[in-house]
Amino acid sequence: MQVLSTLATLALAAVGSCQSITKVNDFSGTPTNLGMYVYVPTSLQTPAPIIVAVHHCQGSAQGYSTESKYLSLADQHNFIVIYPNSRSSGGCFDVSSDASLKHDGGGDSQTIANMVKYAVENYGGDANRTFVTGTSSGAMMTNVLVGAYPDVFKAGSAYSGVPDGCFAVPGSTATQDPPGWNNECANGQSTKTAEQWGDLVRSYYPDYTGPRPRMQIWHGSADTTLRYPNYAETMKQWANVLGLTESTDTANAPQSGYTRTIYGEGDENTAQLVGYSAQGVGHSVPIHETNDLAFFGIA
Q: Is the dihedral of CA 53, 59, 64, 68 positive or negative?
């Protein structure tokens, strides 16, 4: 069990004193100017799992903390929640620049990875149980983080996003506002083979040879913002990265109108890759927090 200093213990008490997130004013590990907000239960037992929850465009850390139910679940299941806050005027994250798409490239993705390291060092987070989830822009960032930082994250759950690297915009920079937007990708017109998608992921951290994070993908068939073909492309990508070819579909799981696809061995909580296609659901698929926690092995 990690031993915290007296000052760190007092900080934990202040952070987790009520059911709301707190801005971390002394977070300085940031190549881009993202805000770091956290929720740390007062009764936290360390080392504790960490979930990074990344908001959508036109959203905020505070807003996403109320849209999702992770705060109350954190108290029940003993985990830390990090809510990054976008620096852009439109609330989107940079998933388009070379900097953000590469390991330690200096973009928003590196800033978020540094937030995890801060939580490990200051709150007693468990570096071996770190996870990321997000909606829309946050889902795109989830895929980017899992691709560029497989050494940091053990699993991800992406709600209504696009494949890692799909939103790349040549000439886009890590500091521009708003971040680059790729219409072709958003409209579901970017198609590649599974190997081509997988090669993109591998190119963002070419020296990495360790295990790849498990992935859970959610998408609505009626999504008109990040259109539905992105679901199949994302599944192809992670199946290739994880070396999976065989899949099994189950109708009406986890609820009516959803089709669950499991790649490889295991069930919906233990498989390497699980996808959920939500018939008739638009942008974005509602957050299924209990499914996320089960997939992350937290509850």
A: negative
Tell me how far apart the alpha carbons of residues 18 and 36 are, in angstroms, rounded to a whole number: 17
- pLDDT grade for 5, boundaries at 50, 70 and 90: very low
3-class DSSP state for residue 17?
Answer: coil
Q: 119 near 38, Cβ under 8 Å? A: yes
Does this model's pTM top 0.85? My answer is yes
Q: What is the spatial distance between Cα 134 and Cα 113, in angstroms, rounded to a whole number?
A: 14
> CB 192: neighbour CB atoms within 10 A?
17
pLDDT at site 1:
36
Residues with Cβ within 8 Å of residue 137, at least 6 apart in sequence: 54, 55, 56, 57, 59, 86, 91, 92, 93, 95
Structure tokens given for 141:
């960032």
Scanning the chain, the segments in alpha helix (DSSP H) are 6-15, 61-67, 70-77, 98-101, 108-123, 137-148, 183-186, 194-203, 229-241, 289-296
Q: Which of 86, 96, 100, 136 is catalytic?
A: 136
Active site residue 28: no
Domains of the chain in sequence order: 6-296 (3.40.50.1820)
